[in-house]
Amino acid sequence: MANKKAPAAGWPIVSGEYVVGNPESCVGVVTLGSHGLEQACIDAGAAIAGPCHTENLGIEKVVANYISNPNIRFMVLCGSEVQGHITGQCFKALWENGIGDDGGIIGAKGAIPFLENVGKDAVERFQRQIVEVVDLIDCEDVSKITAAIKECISKDPGAIDEEPMVLDLEGGGAGGEEAEGGFEIEGIPTVVEPDLEACQKLLEKLEYKVGLMTRDIGLASGVSSESVKGFAIGSLLAVVLVGIPIILKFLIG
What distance in Å separates the CA atoms of residue 82 and residue 89, rounded to the nearest whole number? Predict the structure, then answer.
């Protein structure tokens, strides 16, 4: 029987949309942009299964939960790829190439594939711990996904010979944390007092420009109206001037 270890206390250590199964299972499943596949993955024997939409904070949370459980040795990527973020490809690039000195995932094609709160030590632990990434990206076929999970379980090498590695993401980490409107970074205020004087000056400028635009539109409309009127009168005079000789010729002739 494969050797097992106890995961970190309170595992999974980072909150998310996942469903948790047997913590001694060797398989973790990421359903990317798809929802509704999680319970089938758990029923097939996965330790944890859930979606991941972003190629930065989302990946950080998955890595944190995986390396805090030494029993997880396989990652199954399935479900629809997240357009723009390309999270599935970023996971593969992370496992294959790691991150650079700037935290960027080497070879990742997502929009912002940078890990702010997960350093090289954690990424290298993730690379050592996960022995295989099963690529079922864009597959939502439950039978194929569950078959892949069961195949991984049949190859279970046992827990990695290292203790759980715990990352403090929900405390903010070194680089900051995601808030409702974006990122909260130490040293930068999250609430900014409005400059009322500057706003008033801006409003006055806008009112002046709107007044000029209104005047110009009025003048243009007047010119256009007079032009139409002139054209109509000219056309009428032309008809009269052409029609008079014809009428006279008809009467005389």
Answer: 10
Spatial separation of the C-alpha atoms in residues 85 and 88, rounded to whole Å: 9
Which residues contribute to the annotated binding site for 5-hydroxybenzimidazolylcob(I)amide?
A: 85
Question: Chain-centre distance of CA 182, in angstroms?
Answer: 12
How far is 41 from 69, CA to CA, in rounded Å?
A: 18
- Nearest residue to 12 via CA among 51, 3, 22: 22
- Burial classification of residue 130, based on how many CB atoms lie within 10 Å of its CB (0-12 exposed, 13-18 middle, 19 or more buried): buried
- What would the pLDDT profile of 130-166 be if each residue is shown by its tens digit? 999 999 999 999 999 999 999 999 999 999 999 999 9
- Strands 177-179 and 182-184 come out as antiparallel
| Domain spans of the chain, in order of start | 19-184, 195-253
Where is the binding site, in residues?
A: 85
Contacts of 166 (CB under 8 A, 6+ apart): 8, 13, 64, 68
Q: Any bridge partners for residue 27, and if so which?
A: 74
- Six-digit token string for 27: 């398989």
Q: Which residue has the higher pLDDT, 132 or 206?
A: 132
pLDDT for 233: 75
Question: pLDDT grade, residue 235 (50/70/90)?
Answer: confident
- The pLDDT score that the predictor gives to residue 57 is 95
CA distance 63 to 52: 11
pLDDT exceeds 90 at position 217: no
Sequence letter at residue 165:
M
- Distances from the Cα of 30 to the Cαs of 118, 157, 185, 244, in angstroms? 18, 20, 28, 89
Decide if pLDDT at 188 tops 60.
Answer: no
